[in-house]
Amino acid sequence: MTDTATLAGLDPATLADVLRLAGSDGFDRIQEQIRRTGGCTDPIRLQGSTITRDRETGHVLHSYSTATEPGGVLRVACGNRRASRCPSCAWTYAGDTYHLIRAGLVGDPAKGTPETIRDHPRVFATLTAPSFGPVHNRPGNRPCRCGTHHPEDAPELGAPLDPDAYDYAGAVLWNNHASELWRYFTIYLRREIARRAGLTQKAAREQSRVSFGKVAEYQKRGAVHFHAVIRFDGPEGPDSPPPAWATLDLLADSIRAAAARVQVDVPPAGEEPARTLRWGAQLDVQPIGAFGHGEEITEQAVASYVAKYATKAAETTGTVDRRIGNKEALALLGVPEHPARLIAACLDLHALYPDRKLRDWAHMLGFRGHFSTKSRRYSTTLGALRQVRADYRAAQQREALGLPDPDDEEATTLTLAHWVYAGHGHTPGESWLAANIRRDIQLNRETAREELAGGAPDEQGR
Prior knowledge:
Elements: H1 12-23, H2 27-36, E1 44-54, E2 60-65, E3 74-76, H3 87-106, E4 122-127, H4 168-176, H5 178-197, H6 201-207, E5 209-218, E6 224-233, H7 248-261, E7 264-266, E8 275-277, E9 284-287, H8 299-309, H9 328-333, H10 337-349, E10 372-374, H11 382-401, E11 413-424, H12 428-451
Antiparallel strand pairs: 1-2, 1-3, 1-11, 4-6, 4-9, 5-6, 5-10, 7-8
């Protein structure tokens, strides 16, 4: 337990709950549970039991019940990817994303990609939204259009120079259809590859594959853009080399041509005109070099960049990370003017485009897609990475209890489990304790990262 000096400044209710916890018989176990979740902000509370028996004799080898736990519950991590909701679980999610993306760049046989993947042409592409009106920005060494050299953390960055002339409806409709723009981009990309290779689409598919992993990011102006690793593979995916015609230049040219072809038509509704949505002109396509060879865009940098943004969402623009039901809530929540206008546009447009569910996704400024996605053969999956971690922890637990591995052909154990949901979250005192545990874990990670000798640590300090 931290010393009493750290309790200064706590509100009376939290202080009382901290003192209650510290004096309870189950305090050490509560602290252990919270530490095992990594200091999760909003843990899931479970009630239930497990019994492991010898299959042949019926003898109980081990039993566990939450009836013996403080409060009769077991706390497990919430698993939320948003750093604004749970920094601890978001750190784990970012780490998994890092290893998923990196495995598709450097190869990892344990994650489904051979090391020869490094020889495949691959690029890091950024596809952006078009302009909906001039905004305050930092254009290199030049001043903003308003005549000011804005500092990097200036609150007005991304806000329109003339809010009344800004196309707020167009901005949220573009966000709302961004996933469809990406889908059409992947379709046109394969067509452009075939055309440049002088092949039919069927022949191109029989000779090569295109794999990708992408992440969505919000610009300060509130528009979504996508960062994607796009890679050429052979017909069998990452295990086979791409054909000789599948060059880096052909891939880059095809990406540019495909992005230029994409358009999504939005019909008129009410006073809103018909719109044709397209990608913005700022398309960036850069080759990815092998790590450690001096290239500016390296495998390490790309995987770290994608992982960094996998845990962020629209709250980086000043909005909130939960649904907003009406405009009156905007003032109560203290949402800045620009994101507030974007949210208001979503609420106004919902009645005109009910199938687009703009009211449900107003807090996301209209975007309703997945933030991190990949093609089937890019590398491993987040689910597989989670399962490896769960299997490792289960093996540790079995070893500590002296139980056999259930996958062992000679094992004769049978485990029966029953769990029910019993709520979520912390009491005020538990929240304070979790925050301190999370801070200590973060400090230990940073210390370990600084002590690593040789090689560059990854973005997650792993």
